[in-house]
Amino acid sequence: MGSALITGASSGIGLEIAWHLAAERNDLVLVARDAARLEETAERMRQVAGVRTEALAADLSTTEGVEAVCTRLRSQTRPIGLLVNNAGFGLGQDFVGGSVERELEALDVMVRAVLMTCHAAAPGMVMRGGGGILNVASMSALTAQGTYSAHKAWVVAFTEGLAAELKGSGITATVVCPGPVDTPFFERAGVDMRATPSWLMASPEQVVTEALDAVRAGRVQVTPTIPYKVAMGAMKLAPRWVTARAMRSVPHM
Q1: What angle do CA 231, 187, 225 make, to 5 degrees?
Q2: Which end of the chain has less neighbouring CB within 10 Å, N or C?
Q3: What positions carry a catalytic annotation?
Q4: How many CA atoms, within 13 angstroms, populate the side-chain half-sphere of residue 34?
């Protein structure tokens, strides 16, 4: 890969991806909103892994933030070999009666930013004849959990279409659809996961290992861990109304 740009890189899955790639001696561009925390993370990776690590503070819910990332992706003097779109968050509200500003922020981060960064990165990769894109979605893409599910369903469909368009170019596009992962994601969304059995919570390492293996193999979609591979397969076969009814008691993210 050589170099990778990772959004949402200061915690959770994004941070785990960064450490995995650093351990393999890839240079990194880390993207997140909190500049101080991001620089601290970048410095730790420079010291521990000895790789070139850039900290790019950007708010992907803003036009300026997304354009800053796109500008870096277009650079031909320091090209990016792997784009990882990981940034996202649970809304922690119902759509009806919820904040429309919060809805638009989520749409910008999890849909608009994914589209724009892929559009910025792909032409250079095609010109160089190699590269990869990894978009982080969720198995909730097949459920009816409000707009979060809708955003992730878009990411899945978008990545599948992009992979088909890039076929034969030497560029791969992969989407990872994990189930619940043991990160601060749910706490920040106000979702109580304490009753969830530990064996149903994947570790970030499990998710990242399977996701990066899929990228290297050129696979378009991957659902990490056996329980959720089975669940994903069942949801693909079940009528939509069955899945929707089963998810009614699950808090919206």
Answers
A1: 25
A2: N
A3: 148
A4: 11
